[in-house]
Amino acid sequence: MNESLLLLLQQWRDPLLLGLQVMFILLIAYLLQRLVVRGLERLGRRYPLPPELLLPLRGGIRWFIIGGALIMVLERFGVSATVIWTAFSGFVAVAAIAFFAIWSVLSNLLCAVLIMTVGPFRLGDLVELVESLDKPIVKGRVIDINLLYTTLEEISESGTGAIVQVPNSLFFQKVVRRWRGTDIQTTNHNTHE
Question: What is the pTM of this model?
Fold first, then answer.
């Protein structure tokens, strides 16, 4: 009977020890987090620190403690901190590259929403994008507004114009001159008479 109990104890010793270590790490992390929160609250009461400073500081320290505890727990299970750091930094690098790669698309989408809701111009209006010092970039009648581009029909002296697709974000980066479509028709109609 003693031998079977001893064998069972030897068999479960390592998993029980690992479980106790994990519980101890989590308990220490929790107590450390509570201690830091109380310390920051006392510091905030003692010195007139704004809550806008204490709240992000408390959150940052909390995540730092949680991250440290997580790394310690994973090391108990045999995962190396170097492997975790390499995976995390690789993920952050890929996410940053992806964010910068789609930044112009996201910018154009947001600007399309602004164009459609605020209405700086609408279909049929004549718009002109102007660079600094009154240098025109493009001028044309708005014939389409979609999520990425605003399509303009350029106006030329010969009467035929090219179709130009202008990224929506450009309308918020440059000076825009606008003539309402109804104003243009009235003006053109009066000049023909």
Answer: 0.48
130 neighbors 174 (Cβ within 8 angstroms): yes
Would you call 180 helix, strand, or coil by DSSP? coil
Rounded CA separation 193/189 (Å): 7
- Which residues share a beta bridge with 140? 127, 154
DSSP codes of every residue in 8-76 = HHHHHHHHHHHHHHHHHHHHHHHHHHHHHHHHHHHHHHHTT--HHHHHHHHHHHHHHHHHHHHHHHHHH
DSSP letter assigned to residue 78:
T
The pLDDT tens digits for 13-35 are 888 888 999 999 999 999 999 99
